[in-house]
Automatic annotation (TrEMBL):
One record GO biological process: response to metal ion
Molecular-function GO terms, alphabetical: copper ion binding
Matching SUPFAM superfamilies: GlnB-like
UniProt record similarity statement: Belongs to the CutA family.
Lineage: Bacteria, Candidatus Buchananiibacteriota
Pfam families according to UniProt: CutA1
Top-rank taxon, per record: Bacteria
InterPro entries, sorted: Ion_tolerance_CutA, N-reg_PII-like_a/b, N-reg_PII/ATP_PRibTrfase_C
Designated name of the protein: Divalent-cation tolerance protein CutA
Transmembrane segments: none
Length: 101
């Protein structure tokens, strides 16, 4: 199972991205929650409230998921991370079923 994370400007943006990805069967689910972020951007230290979204998908869908995120995201440079995760076989089967049915 692949986990993709991205920070979004707000919950509405995260919900929009998740809805499109779910509708196109590119992810099995998305979890989102508020976070406080501190980062360097254009030479300055910035602080902001963002929404972190964690999505479950398959390796075959990663390229398409990234493409949709870049199309819908409001940031100049959305930070997308991708990790290969181990999970219970039942969870991995569910992710496969949701995406491929």
């Amino acid at each position: 199972m692949i986990e993709i994370t991205v920070t979004c400007k707000n919950q509405a943006e995260a919900d929009t991205i998740a809805a499109v990805l779910l509708q196109q069967r590119l992810i099995a689910c998305a979890n989102s929650f508020s976070v406080r972020s501190v980062y360097r951007w254009k030479g300055k230290i910035e602080r902001s409230r963002e929404v972190l979204m964690i999505m479950k998908t398959t390796l075959a869908q990663v390229k398409s998921v990234k493409k949709i995120i870049f199309e819908l995201h409001s940031y100049e440079l959305p930070v997308i991370t991708i990790a290969n995760k181990s999970s219970a076989p039942e969870v991995e089967a569910w992710v496969q079923k949701v995406i491929h049915n």
